[in-house]
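Box S2. Input/output pair 1.
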Amino acid sequence: MAIAKAERLMNLALCLLGTRRPLSKRELRGSIEAYLEAGSDDAFNRMFERDKDDLRELGLVIETVENLDGDTGYLARRDSNRLPPITLDAEEAAALGLAAKVWQQARLAGAASGALQKLRAAGMPEAEDVYEVHSALEPRIPVHEAAFEPLMLACRDRRPVTFDYRKANAARPEQRQVEPWTLECWRGHWYLAGWDRDRGAERVFRLSRITGRVRSRAGVFTVEVPDVVTVRETVESWAGETATRTARIRLRAGAGYPLRSRAISVRELGDGWDELEIPYGHGLDAWLVEFGPDVVVQEPADLRADVVDRLRAVAKD
């Protein structure tokens, strides 16, 4: 069904762009096979009005012209729908090349490479890649979760989804109905921020905990999507970025370098252990569990209890 609609929109756009005079609805219906197959005039009119609105939403400028007889015609002038030439200086070209490298190991790698090839063919200057020769660091965004692509498309198209999600302290996954807002990469993990319909609140989901297939659902969003900055702050808060207290942990020597990089203080205890004071915010318990036996929480007591509960849930599985 989606392919048929895309083909119908393409045929309508070609007709409107290819004509030198406005075309009436009757002429358009006779030129496009999908419109000929419409069961009635009312069905055709509804289909045509939806398609015309969709093309305008995609950016096509469609003019409505009324002739002397009062008939309405439609056309899309080429000069009104032609993009201006793309000109990039060396710094802008370097920024685009760097952005493409970020997605080199993600599912967007093909699209990013293809876009660069088209820009270079159009005359985009070749920029020196400072990351290729002079640095041992190279920007990458790893994407291994199968849920990434369907969720990315659902965020783009504003489509509700359902999926099975297993919380870190749960033995079994449970189904979630979500209106997806955006995807964020934080500390090497991807998170989905959106509206959880069952709980009636915004939630953040870690993609690696989504099990099974992400399924799209019909219908529209029931809640307005907040601006990007608000969503990003929500992701960071739920993932543990916003710290309100500090915690004291024991960490095995030579382990847990991400924890050490955030530590406020580090003290050697001997016997292969160090004591760290680290910022304590929402989500820290889930992060500490990832380090397994290399971490022992000393205080506060509620954080220690949360970590123990999560470890027990994993052990039961």
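Box S3. Input/output pair 2.
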Amino acid sequence: MGAGAAVELTAGERTVRLSSPDRVLFPERGFTKRDVAEYFIAVGGGILRALRDRPTTLERYPESIEGEHFYQKRAPKNLPDWTPTATIAFPSGRTADEMCPTEVAAVVWAAQYGTLTFHPWPVRRDDLDHPDELRLDLDPQPGTDYADAVRAAHELRDLLDGFGLRGWPKTSGGRGIHVFVPITPRWTFTEVRRAAITCGRALERRMPDAVTTAWWKEERGERIFVDYNQTARDRTIASAYSVRARPHAPVSAPLSWDELDDAVPRDFDVATMPERFARLGDVHRDMDEHAFSLDAVLEQADRDERDHGHGDLPYPPEYPKMPGEPKRVQPSRARHDD
């Protein structure tokens, strides 16, 4: 009811049909499916930079953010023939063909089916086993907030500089901060995850009362959690410019380091980001011009293991047991079992 007749929107050199354009996806703000599609067109150059040639999972809300939603990993059967796919392998050994956007029209096409958030793999379709991004997720735990994540991010920036790396920060769309480091696609998922653990541990040593790498929630306390498992195979982070399914329709906003202290995540949403993009463009536009080495980080990982016995950390529960992984049981249960 009230969804309106279909319309056609121009996205790049293509025309994309949008059915039920007046369907309200964000009741609190009144944003419709058409509003979301036009938002993606307005920031098209930015979101395409974040998604280009990457296998991408779609987070879909067909009716509204108050209705049912699901993550679509396999490319829909009606995917346009002008959008390529790539066959990705899950830790279970199963495979799936995922869409790999190469033009803004693919993003708008996905919005037609209620896609709000895009979850790209950190690989390109021409090399599916070697990530070209190190993604560091600073996740505020209960009792902490965005300001705490900002402080951790600034310290992380200095830490990365010591490893010869440069990160590009963005809001998560919530209280957290993501820092992406473009890297040469030389290392496996396991090695990149090890690099993320090493960065997390180094940050934890610098800020022991404010940062943690503890996988088990009961051990994290009121600290920023460096979610190293977001670098494990088949774990993804919402792309820059993705819309998040929260009542005020926030978006994951790329920022410059100079903006980080004054940024207010709620200021970046479906209504405000197009004006910012028109004024500043994609502030992460130069990411693809860089590709850093993880050698220094992995050398630190070797030292951590040799000198301090710091080996691997637990994987997510749905993963098969990995070589060298510690016992995957929460500490309180382990003590009880003993």
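Caption for Box S3: Residues 189-206 form the longest helix (18 residues). The longest strand covers residues 133-140.
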